[in-house]
Design a protein that fits this description.
By secondary structure, the chain is an alpha+beta fold. It is built from 14 helices and twelve strands.
Length: 461
């Protein structure tokens, strides 16, 4: 007997008992929909967490700090190493940057030079702007809302979308955090004046003289072009929102103009005599790795060199573990429903055998192959699973849409996007699993039908 013939016979047998078939299929529908929706919630939560972490910074970027940078500030990381305070500081210099580039799986390294500067535009001023000098490879990963990135060697400013909030009115001393209104600052449309010598600025604002009584002139202001604004809007947030970026070569050239030879640059380390070092020391470095899977390995090598390391992968790994646990629990809850549906399929097939005992006996007497009898019942149970799985997946899309419509994760957990996400592979896997469960539930009844004695079956009333 050919497969199409078996399929037609199975469908006809199911149609003869419409109510029982519908109730059995209904159980599979509920079980399949429960599994798909539950797993989709776990997938959505996992993807939303990954998207949020990725928005804070690249998942293939490692931040590297000197053990002695920022007063020994400790940064959390997957791998950390300690250093004796009496040993030589492991400053990040151009030579160290070259060493980082030689590490396997590293595609590039950007030195990061932080400068606290004063910026002024019209009546508005910000006395604590964090200016970051970075390489072109770092700048290229920034997403701009308007404008362009500075060219190599150009001192062009790229404003983070949150920097303008820190400007205050120089006359009233009030700004966004006092009034709730954005300051009237337009970096792209009006000139921006920058003061680099913060020590001279504060001394001139105070007594107007240095510690030895020497008068201090107000530091020179430099008008610098703003070339771009980062995307994100007024309310957006990322790791880049509160900084102003520029090309590091352009910044180093500017510092040579502002601070003459022998004059310490604010924030730069000095020797025991208070003189600046012979080479520029960077606050940190950004190491770019070729793949997420290699980030941890590179971190361990950097830590072994005596540096503090930090990356988004540290948070991602812990988030993945939590998401996998949640997904397993949710999937298990849904699987219970499908298990109950499997019991219903087995019951339906057993009842079908009892009702069709004489029919089975006649088929055996006429010489029907035992395997065909078994396959007929397996196809019936598998078809019940297929119908229930297909309708269940369609139902799960509707439930998912309702969940995404009424559950706002941005307010409850600070996450954005749909909570329930059903990828195509999940839909196909759910239908396949429903068919498998149906055939597994119908296996024992099918074997029982195959083993029925022909004489006993024919005599059955």
């Amino acid at each position: 007997m050919k497969f199409p013939d078996l399929l037609i016979m199975s469908m006809n047998n199911l149609r003869r008992r419409k109510l029982r078939t519908v109730l059995t299929v209904l159980g599979v529908i509920i079980g399949t929909a429960a599994i798909v929706v539950m797993v989709s919630l776990g997938i959505g939560l996992n993807e939303m967490t990954m998207e949020q972490i990725a928005s804070w910074g690249s998942l293939t970027t490692i931040e590297v700090y000197s053990q002695s940078s920022d007063g020994g500030m400790q940064m959390m990381g997957a791998a950390m190493s300690s250093q004796n305070s009496e040993s030589e500081p492991n400053y990040i210099t151009d030579k160290v940057i070259d060493n980082f580039k030689r590490i396997p799986h590293v595609t590039g390294v950007s030195p990061v030079l932080n400068m606290n500067v004063v910026m002024r535009q019209g009546a508005y001023i910000s006395t604590y702007v964090q200016l970051k000098g970075v390489s072109q490879s770092y700048l290229e990963q920034l997403e701009l809302a308007e404008g362009r990135l500075p060219q190599p060697g150009e001192l062009g400013l790229v404003f983070g979308n949150g920097v303008i909030r820190d400007f205050t009115n120089a006359k009233t001393g009030k700004g966004y955090w006092d009034t709730g209104e954005m300051p009237d600052v337009d970096p792209m449309g009006k000139p921006m004046f920058v003061i680099f010598d913060m020590d001279a600025y504060y001394q001139s604002q105070g007594s107007g003289s240095s510690s030895d009584g020497t008068p201090v002139k107000p530091p020179k202001k430099y008008m610098i072009e703003t070339t771009g604004m980062l995307a994100g809007g007024e309310n957006g947030y990322s790791n880049y929102s509160w900084y102003v970026f520029t090309d590091i070569d352009g910044l180093k050239a500017q510092l040579k103009k502002v601070f003459k030879k022998g004059t310490p640059i604010p924030g730069q380390p000095t020797n025991k005599k208070g003189k600046p070092l012979n080479e520029l020391v960077y606050n940190s470095a950004e190491v770019f790795v070729d793949d997420m899977e290699n980030v941890t390995q590179v971190q361990e090598q950097l830590a072994a060199m005596g540096y503090q390391v930090n990356s988004q992968m540290d948070f991602l790994e812990s988030s993945r573990q939590q998401s996998n646990m949640v997904q397993a629990v949710l999937g298990g809850i849904g699987a219970v429903s499908l298990f109950v549906a499997a019991i219903g399929i087995a019951n339906t097939m057993m009842m079908s055998i009892y009702e069709r005992t004489k029919e089975i006996g006649v088929m055996k007497v006429l010489g029907c192959d035992m395997g065909n009898i078994r396959n007929m019942f397996l196809i019936e149970s598998g078809f019940i699973g297929f119908m229930g799985g297909t309708i269940g997946v369609a139902l799960s899309y509707g439930v998912s849409a309702i969940v995404n419509r009424f559950v706002n994760m941005s307010q409850s957990m600070g996450l954005s996007g749909d909570l329930s996400r059903i990828p195509p592979w999940l839909s196909m896997a759910a239908i396949g699993f429903a068919v498998f469960v149906g055939m597994a539930a119908g296996f024992m009844p099918a074997v029982r039908a195959m083993k029925l004695s022909p004489l006993a079956a024919i005599r059955n009333e």
